[in-house]
Amino acid sequence: MEADIDDIVRRASKIVERASRIPMEYFRSPLDLEAKADDSPVTIADRSTEAFIRKELAEAFPDDGIFGEEFGTENQGADAIWFIDPIDGTRSFITGNPLFGMLLGRIVNGTPQIGIVRMPALNETYVGFSGQRATRNGETITCRDTTRLGEAMVYINEAERLSADDPERFFRLCRTGHTRRMAYDCYPHALVASGQIDAVVDFGLEPYDYLPLVGLVAAAGGVMSDWKGNPLGIDSDGRVVTAATPALRDELLAVIDA
Q: Quick one: which residues bind Mg(2+) (predicted)?
């Protein structure tokens, strides 16, 4: 089984790295934008990237299901399902910000197994899978060992939406930790996995936004949950905490739930 997982990870990583050339062909170039039903933007780069990944996955893993942001689901009754976000951070992408990512995760019988974060403009690939080490460009990474929130570097994602939806909770979060930054999308979660920061509070996510991150963070020694401390699954409500240690996560949840 271990050798099988190694092979799956190797092939999936190559698919993501090959796919990353597609958004880079369009990055910092004029693009036609469309608005989806939720008013979020989508471009030809999003759709072309997902189409490529879906085709490659279907050829490499024909028995697996697929759940992608742009083109929906295929074979959802399969034991193993791939979750795809072709450009996580389209608003960053269309404004020339290099902190957009590409997410690919494999979920087996409801449990996250493999998580891959590719940052095309930074040429960074983060990979983690259950029971094994996490890596960045092939080098082992681990979470920090911070357990006290007062000593933590905390990122608050989707601050604009969170402050509008729940200003009291947002205000509490803005007073937590030793250092705070406002951010977006997948990269802060990868920074927790690589030991650069300690925690991320995120909001308004879809399964393809958070499930690919779980395998990476867990392999690096960290923890992800919803705002109630429950494990993340396809039916989670999109409110997410990522932390370097369980103790730090619990302190952060206490602030969120005050």
A: 69, 85, 87-88, 209
Do the strands 65-68 and 80-88 form a parallel or antiparallel pair, or are they unpaired?
parallel
What residues are designated binding site?
69, 85, 87-88, 209
- Per-residue pLDDT reduced to its tens digit, 178-230: 999 999 999 999 999 999 999 999 999 999 999 999 999 999 999 999 999 99
List where CATH 3.30.540.10 sits in the chain: 2-140
The pLDDT tens digits for 63-95 are 999 999 999 998 888 999 999 999 999 999 999
Amino acid symbol at 133: R
Closest CA to 66 of 231, 211, 239, 230: 211
- Does the domain at 2-140 match CATH 3.30.540.10? Answer given as yes
Burial state string for 17-35 with b = 16 or more CB within 10 A and e = fewer than 16: eebbebbeebbeeebeeee
For 149-256, CATH gives 3.40.190.80
Neighbours of 79 (CB within 10 A): 11
How big is the CA angle at 212 (ends 158 and 41), to the nearest 5 degrees?
45
Annotated binding site for Mg(2+): 69, 85, 87-88, 209
Q: What type of residue is 107?
A: I
Q: Report the predicted TM-score, pTM, of the whole model to 2 decimal places.
A: 0.94
On the question of pLDDT at 161 being above 50, the answer is yes
Give the SS3 label for residue 161. helix
Q: Are 95 and 62 in contact (CB under 8 A)?
A: no
Q: Which residues belong to CATH 3.40.190.80 in the chain?
A: 149-256
